[in-house]
């Protein structure tokens, strides 16, 4: 059994949690490959452990049964994943192709350990790009009248494909609370500004009007409130008076794709734990 | 005459402006050391010229008379300064010392070509720091009742000292429109966020609450609206979930002093031209 | 005639050059859209001018004849290009696809104003990637014995296609002085380190061994000496002890493609002038 | 007892180390405030633990006796420090004041948790700067003839003051192997280039000659070979053709002081473990 385990845990902080967790693993002859830990100001304990599968005494089926009593005693939220079972990731996209193209290239290059069972778009334009990678492309157009129905069909597709992570790679539709709730903490959006600046529409034009000298991009989990969910990663680029709105769009694409790809990678490796409206990121 | 000239010009764009300006200088046997030019989207022409003083045919007294007809013909706003006459810079400060200390150190190190005839503070704390550099320190305390009167005394001091540039190095008082108007485009503030995010009070605490992964600082000319004036320079630092509000304050100090010092230097070298609510920065 | 002109000039510095150049353009009713100028420590004058084609009194055929006397008088090296005539760019590549893919995506997105008449590789792997963009792909394998002959065929292909710019997008062959000389200042290489550190082979492995905390990439014009030509642009990424050589490779790819793309764009817009073993870059 | 403990450990990797360490602490009723762990490619295990003093069952005197058997069994190199006992830091400096000034300012601001019992210089210039902070300044001039003797006196001073950490804040003397050995892994130097580029003398001049577009600074532990010890932190600044050697010096000062201060802070908080010629930095 060459697959390793990743265990993430959060619970109220108290003495002895690291000892309890590491002893549990030692007791079953497990080897901890890496351990990251953090206690928030509000005294919540977060931990991520990578455990070598080789030699570990608990089979995949046995783990939950053996771990549950310990988890219950400490009130733990916990999640375990196996490195031989990549997450299933869906990408939603509209017409802008830079984030999609970059994710697909990185996926081909082995940077993103995921299956991609489908890409969904409200426009047909990017079908060839997606299908060239052997990935099914679903064109589900949307109008004001069909919005609810279209979203419902998207949700059906995600569900049929047992999707673990939904990436909004510049998907220009606002999702309903029902969608957001179904994929809470598993729905990553890239916003083309350094939030909270320029939340909402048309950030590059507004950045240009304000005369900023720095533009940015923000990847975050989607919550009910627009562009207000837990931030995963942000980065910026310097700009000058010479840069037109078109230049900001061009320079911003660079930042957007970098920030999104890094965030997706962190999620796929179970490195992000959500702490209220903040994220704990174990890099 | 070893002093060089810096000429900055802005006017409606039209054909032949560079030729007109450079020919004017050539005609008087001037040597252009550097030239920067920019035309905005709104067809405003901006230019900055450094002219060697040695060999230039126009004396300091003659320049304006010779240049004015050309300027008038093209509707130019223009300004000339001489490198042997450093600007007079006043610093206003409250209790935080990092920006002040950094400016004074750079001034000592020869990075800032200015005279500093005075530092004004509403608190007495930083007097020894300032006086150690041989600079007069004026303590003008302020209460709600004495605000108008105190500001009036500050303005008098600035005027008596013929101050060209006022730097708010974390001066924790909001200035009246009268003050802003008196030093329009000559009044630099450092705000401890990447504007327009977190304008107003307590940006580090709000940044922490929002869970941002990047903090920043913004230097801008002060206008009537709080934290909304033309931005000169911005920079950021990456932060993580481990950083408390105190850590953000500490990391932010680093960015604030760097951003402010660079902006002051650019202003002192006449490298910033204001274009409505934006800045043209010839670096 | 909607095409604009870009004129770049370098010559020994002397009084009146800006005036002479701008007057020449004014004399022929030209409108200068942008002007950048620089004088080096060694008193060499560099200038780049963008001139509006609309209304300019000199036709494409007349320009050289009209300008040559002025250029000769001042000993100018000069070059004029027209914005309706994109440069012809060839890409040489081996097996790594990240720089190639990124250049092609940017070209599709309109970021790079060039024709790409051919891509040449010593491996067949990337043919489908290139041909999907409608660009001819030439596979010219190379062995120790056929190296001279292969390079000769590459040069023939470049010549037949009247190539203006050759981009080495991780082309893993060292070029002969003959090749370098044929495309001097028109041959851009991306090296996967911040030169002069780790010139030569295997920089990521050597960076890892040295335990650096920053990796980088450098785009430069190729000269006879390996990795020693004029540097165009450099950028870096921060790394930590957790990053393996494979991580450095992955993080480095990101920097390489960004640095190369920016350098190619600058070259295509005639923004780079070579000054001995340095570059003047008018951004 | 409000002082917390910091325990750092390195040893050959094997199963159960985290469990053994955390159980040891739990057994004595200790609360782990933070835990960082890393296993190198060469299978060396590194860990840093912060343990709450309040409620911990082992007194300061008892800790070593209780921990030693466990440490011996696993072949651990280990070190414990207490947060109420700041390290004693000496600063060695020559004439450049920027790094010294910055360290002293940060120390005043509470950013550096250390005692500074002395500053040593081979020049008298910076005495007033140091004494203004109430720190003894020792002027020990050095000539080619007195080099050995002077270094010997410096070592005596460090020893008399029981110094834990020596910071070379642009100290322009090469130390002998005897000195290096006495303060191995406790002797931090700031070099004004991104190593391994421009090791040795005059890096800014050489960077300018090479025409780089990025300059940097590197903080490292000093080893016998010049500028070749384990790197702690590096950072860079972008430069352009316009920047003279003097500009590089000015821009570099900014990077130097930032990189040095961060490295010193990391060391003072026991966040750096040395792994051969590399560093493990738990930020």
Please sum up the structure shown.
Four copies of one chain form a homotetramer. The first copy, chain A, has two domains: 5-82, ACT domain (Alpha-Beta Plaits, 2-Layer Sandwich), CATH 3.30.70; 87-281, 3-Layer(aba) Sandwich (Rossmann fold). In chain A, 33% of the residues lie in helices and 29% in strands.
Alpha-carbon Rg of chain A, integer: 21 Å
Q: Summarize model confidence as the mean pLDDT of chain A.
A: 97
Approximate strand percentage of chain A:
25-35%
Order of helices and strands of chain A, N to C? EHEEHEEHEHEHEHEHEEHEE
Corresponding CATH architecture of the largest domain in chain A? 3-Layer(aba) Sandwich
Active site (chains A, B, C, D): 227
Domain ACT (chains A, B, C, D): 6-87
GO biological process, one term (chains A, B, C, D): one-carbon metabolic process
EC number (chains A, B, C, D): 3.5.1.10
Description of the structure:
The structure is a homotetramer of 283-residue chains. The first copy, chain A, has 283 residues and is of the alpha/beta class. In chain A, 33% of the residues lie in helices and 29% in strands. Chain A folds into 2 domains: 78 residues, Alpha-Beta Plaits, CATH 3.30.70.260; 195 residues, 3-Layer(aba) Sandwich (Rossmann fold), CATH 3.40.50.170. In chain A, the strands form 3 sheets. The first copy, chain A, has a 7-stranded mixed sheet with strand order 7-6-5-8-9-10-11. In chain A, strands 2-3-1-4 form a 4-stranded antiparallel sheet, covered by helices on one side. Chain A is globular. Chain A starts with a strand and ends with a strand. Chains A and B meet through strand 11 and strand 13 of A and strand 11 and strand 13 of B. Chains A, B, C, D: Belongs to the PurU family. Chains A, B, C, D: It comes from Rubrobacter tropicus. Chains A, B, C, D: One of its GO terms (molecular function) is formyltetrahydrofolate deformylase activity. Chains A, B, C, D: It catalyses: (6R)-10-formyltetrahydrofolate + H2O = (6S)-5,6,7,8-tetrahydrofolate + formate + H(+).
């Amino acid at each position: 059994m060459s697959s390793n385990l990743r265990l993430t845990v959060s619970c109220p902080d108290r003495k002895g949690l690291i000892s309890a967790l590491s002893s549990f693993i030692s007791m079953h002859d497990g080897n901890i490959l890496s351990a990251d830990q953090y206690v928030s100001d509000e005294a919540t304990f977060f931990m991520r452990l990578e455990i070598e599968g080789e030699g570990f005494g608990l089979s995949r089926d046995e783990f939950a049964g053996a771990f549950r009593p310990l988890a219950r005693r400490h009130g733990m939220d916990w999640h375990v994943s196996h490195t031989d079972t990549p997450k299933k990731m869906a990408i939603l996209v509209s017409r802008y192709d830079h984030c999609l193209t970059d994710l697909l290239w990185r996926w081909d290059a082995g940077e993103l350990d995921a299956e991609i069972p489908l890409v969904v778009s409200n426009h047909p334009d990017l079908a060839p790009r997606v299908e060239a990678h052997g990935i099914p492309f679903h064109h589900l157009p949307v109008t004001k009248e069909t919005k609810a129905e279209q979203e419902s069909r998207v949700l059906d597709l995600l569900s049929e494909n047992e999707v673990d992570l939904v990436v909004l790679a510049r998907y220009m539709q606002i999702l309903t609370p029902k969608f957001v709730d179904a994929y809470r903490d598993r729905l990553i959006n890239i916003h083309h500004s350094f939030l909270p600046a320029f939340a909402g529409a048309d950030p590059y034009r507004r950045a240009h009007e304000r005369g900023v000298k720095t533009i940015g991009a923000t990847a975050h989990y989607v919550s009910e409130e627009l562009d207000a969910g837990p931030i995963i990663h942000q980065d910026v680029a310097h700009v000058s008076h010479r840069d037109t709105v078109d230049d900001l769009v061009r320079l911003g694409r660079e930042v957007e794709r970098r920030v999104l790809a890094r965030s997706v990678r962190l999620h796929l490796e179970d490195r992000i734990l959500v702490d209220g409206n903040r994220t704990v990121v174990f890099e």
